[in-house]
Amino acid sequence: MIIALALVALASVVSGQSSPSAALEAQCRQAIDLHPSFYRSYLCLARCHAAQGNLAEAVQVARMAMPLLQGRAFYTYHLATLGFCLARTGQGDEARAIDSQMDEIGRLHYYSKIDRALISLALGDVAAAQHWIAVAKEEHNPWLLVLPCDPLWEDNIGATH
Question: Following DSSP, what letter does each residue of 92-105 receive, concatenated?
Fold first, then answer.
């Protein structure tokens, strides 16, 4: 379903009817209306808000989705989005708590170290971000390929190399 909605969003952008962010946001909201418990729609909406600089809205959406994400795929990706937004809105203590939570999660199962790097970068800790990117490279993390295309990394990708 989300793929079909994403294609509709892409078509509206290509046809000039809306901006990519506005189209994606509309489709995410429609997906949430259709299936309120589908956590990936919230994740996409939170990232969309964050990419547009609407960090307070991204935090609100991310917090709403937390109960839906417990124990699911992309949980740490979602935590990283929340941590990034909290750090960028001056809520560094809460962002650091999320970063620490990732340590606990890591004791139980694998997660992408790119998620840790994103939070570190938002907190202004470039050295830690570089460390986590280096770990991701050692792990041959395929998500490294999309960092240059990710709006949350857009202004900071050079800092991690």
Answer: HHHHHHHHHHHHHH
